[in-house]
Amino acid sequence: MPITVLDTCSAMRRILLAPAADRVDLLRSMLEPIKGMYRYHPGEIDLVAAHLQQSGFPIDRDEERCLDALETLETAGAWKRMQRAVDDALAVLLEATPGLEVPDITVLFVLGDPADEHFMGPCQGVTGFGGISGQIMITFWPFPENVERLESTAVHELHHNLRFGPGGVVWDPATVTVGEHIVSEGLADALARRLYGDEIGHTRIGVPHLRDDEVFAKVLTGLDVTGMENFTAWVHGDPSAERFGLPPVGLPMGAGYAAGTRLVDTYLAATGQTAAQALRADSAEIIAATLRNG
C-alpha cells in the first residue's frame, strides 16, 4: 500500500495511560516511523523534543483532556476516514498525471497540546507538514469544524508530498521563494475543494481573508522574498511569526493561504486545467496568470 495512515490511536492511548516514567520511550517509539521527516535537520534529532516543540500532545499533564479528545476522534472514525481520503485522492491524481511517481508515504496523525494558546487559537487546532517526500505529519485538536475537515486536511498534505516528491518541483532552500510556498498552499486547497467542496476544502486559517483585496495586494509584494526564515510571516501571518521569534510583515493569520487560493483559481480558470492536473504546475506561470489579469 503506497500510503499508510499509522494507528496512532492505540499508541497515544497507551502513552496517556502509562506511568509517567514510561511515556517518553513510548512516545519516541510512536514517532520513529516519521524520523525521515527530519533527514535534512543538522545533527541528530530528538523526536520527543521536536514533538513537544511543534505543539504535540503533552506527556506530563492534561491526560484526561487528551483521552477525551482521542475518544472523539475514534468515535468519528478519524483514521479510517483519512486513509480512505488519501487513497481516493491518490487515484484522482494518478488519473490526471500519468506516470506520476508515488513513493511509500507514512502519515502520522497526533493530538495537539490543548494548553498551547497559539495552536488552539490562531492555528485553530490544526497544523500539518507534508513537504518531505514519504512523510506526512498532522497535529490536530478535534474541534467540530476540524473533525468535519479530516479528509480535506489529509488530502492537502498529500498534495504537498506529491508536488515536491520524486520527479516533482524542487524545493531548494537557497532559492525557493514565498511565491512558491503560497502557490503550493493554493494548489493543495484546490484539490481538497475539488474533492470535498469549497465549504470544507479550504484550510480554515485562510478563509477570513479570501476576499480581502488589501491582504492580497500585500502578499503579492512579498512573492519574490527568499530565505525560509522569512516565509512564516508571509504565508501563515504575523501571529505565527511572532510565536517563533521571527519578524512580522503586517499580515493576518492565514494570509498566504487566502492569496494562494486566489492565484490558483485565476490560473485554473485561465488554463481550463483541473486541480489534479495542476499538481506540478509551475508557480511562476500561476503567478503570471494573475498579474496578466489584473
Describe this structure in words.
There is one protein chain. About 45% of the residues are buried. The termini are far apart. It contains 15 helices and four strands. A four-stranded mixed beta sheet has the order 1-2-4-3. It has two domains: about 1-150, no CATH class; about 170-294, no CATH class. The chain is globular and about 60 Å long. It has about 290 residues and is of the alpha/beta class. The longest helix has 19 residues, at about 80-95.
> What does the largest sheet look like?
4 strands, mixed
Instruction: Give the strand line-up of the largest sheet.
Output: 1-2-4-3
Q: Provide the β-strand percentage band.
A: 5-15%
Count of individual helical segments: 15
Count of extended strands: 4
Q: Unreliable runs, pLDDT <50, ≥5 residues?
A: none
User: What is the share of helical residues?
Assistant: 40-55%
Q: Report the structural category.
A: alpha/beta
The shape, in one word, is: globular
Mean pLDDT: 95
Radius of gyration: 19 Å
Helices and strands, in order, run as EHHHHHEHEEHHHHHHHHH
Tell me the count of domains.
Answer: 2
Distance between the termini: 45 Å
**What is the oligomer described by this structure?**
single chain
